[in-house]
What we know:
Layout: H1 15-25, H2 59-71, H3 78-105, H4 121-163, H5 167-172, H6 174-186, H7 192-212, H8 217-240, H9 247-263, H10 269-316, H11 326-345, H12 351-400, H13 406-422, H14 428-479, H15 485-498, H16 504-542, H17 547-580, H18 585-622
Amino acid sequence: MDEIMHNGTPVPQDEAAEQLTAETTQQPAPIAEQPAEFTDSNPETLSPEPAPRTDPATKQEVIERLKTIVYEGAQADRSELERLKMIYYRLHNAAVAEAREQFIANGGAPEAFMPQPDPEEENFKAQMSLIREMKAKAAEEQEREKQANLQRKQQIIERIKAMAVSPEEADKGYDELKKLQEEWKEIKNVPAENATELWKNYQLYVEQYYDQLRLNHEMRAYDFKKNLEIKTQLCEAAEKLAAMDDVIAAFHQLQTLHQEYRETGPVAKELRDEIWKRFKDASTVVNKRHQQHFEELKAQEEQNLARKTELCEKVETLRTDEARTYQQWDELTQQVLAWQAEWKTIGFTPRKVNNEIFERFRAACDAFFQQKTSYFKDMRETLAANLAAKNSLIAQAEELKDSTDWAATTQKLVELQKQWKQTGPVAHKVSDAVWKRFNDACNAFFNRKAEQNAGQRKEEEANLARKNEILAQLEKLAAEPAADQLQAVRALQAEWQEVGHVPFRKKEKMYRRYRELCDTIYNALHENAGRRHMDNFRRNVAEKEGNELTRERTRLLNALEAKKQEIQNYETNLTFFRASSKKGNSLVADIEKKLARLKEDLALMQQKVKAVNEQINSASQKD
């Protein structure tokens, strides 16, 4: 502050003045800016929402606005450039999305879509590059201007310092001081690191000048009165700022008021503290609202950071390894797109992490879509390999469809059908077509085979009916033995052999029944024959006596021992075959049948020996 007392005593800068200077010159913490979102050509990535204002409606309008900035030298702040960039890529991504939808509507696979290069993007980037160069040059020019302003203000300070060395110099230089003060006000920006020290020196030497000034009190009182009016108006303006809804605008207007307050001359000593306190109190209210606003903004940014971190974690933890079908991948894609849409509704995060969290989210989304692309690339290769394999099977089936080698071709086609089932799926759009070709080729052969075998099936059905009649006659013979049973069963067996084939599915069952009936009949015949044989043997033995009976018994006992030895040999062989032989079961079955017959013969011999012994005992009793 450059005010002095009317009695020439300089007013020192108190702590309140220093505090106000610090409060009013301190800039607010900058708001974190949202980076341009997902400006690549992938329609499935994010693009930011535009600011709620009248925006260019096409990419060409965006480029025209950039050209205006370039060619007319118009100034564009960073927020406008970011907004134009976001609008351009929003329109770009919308065009890509529309092309993708049209591609899918025309029958294309979603993963096969490749966006066309944007012919306007190079022009857009060129205009942005020119603007960056212009802003860089403007920044250099502003820096040179600040240095020139610094040098001029330092010269003004030196001149006021020289005018304040004595009362005589002060009296002579009053008009010049006024001009220097006006010039000081007109000189604007200086380097920020020099601003505070420069203003303090200016204030110090102005006060020293007024200490030396000896003009009449009326002129000085007039200056004090005029300065008081100006500072009172500044206080009123600062007090009104407390009611403004726009806290940021109020704070910036306060900075302007502080600049005017500092550049306004002194007031009377008895009013100095009062006017200063009033202005300071009004400034404090505005500063507190401003500080509270940024604290709330910071808290909101922390909440936004938490929400965006959560979205990052959701994308990063997606279980893409479990996706095995188009539908599963589509569901995951829709989820990621929903999270991207939610991301765009979340506000800024703290500036120091804004780019970092955005890059994390974009990297997670990019990783997901890369995995999806890789999966469908592998899937396409697999489907292509499966299609090639199925086409090979189709070619083989079509070569066989006209064959007349019914048995061999049937086996080959059945094998081809097994291979078809083992071959993986093909692309949905060709699946029905390739299956139809293969199925038609197989059906063509089997339909011809069915026509060829139609007569054969009729013959087999007739043979089936005839053999069923033979089985019925055999069942009757088994249930009601006849005198000529042996001749009858042999006649039926001969007739069975003459009848041709029956349907294959019934062949085995019918043959088993045939064997069972034949075995039953022959077993019954064998038992009857055995009984008749023993009756004849007993009659013959009854007619013998003495040595003839003894010789018969000896013969029978020798034959009995030989039969036992033969049975033992077969049982030993049977054990060997069961334990170590890998031959078929037919040989074992033959041996078992042979053993059964030998044992039957053994039992018959034992009965004969018993009959002979009974006859010998009977003859001994008669003697």
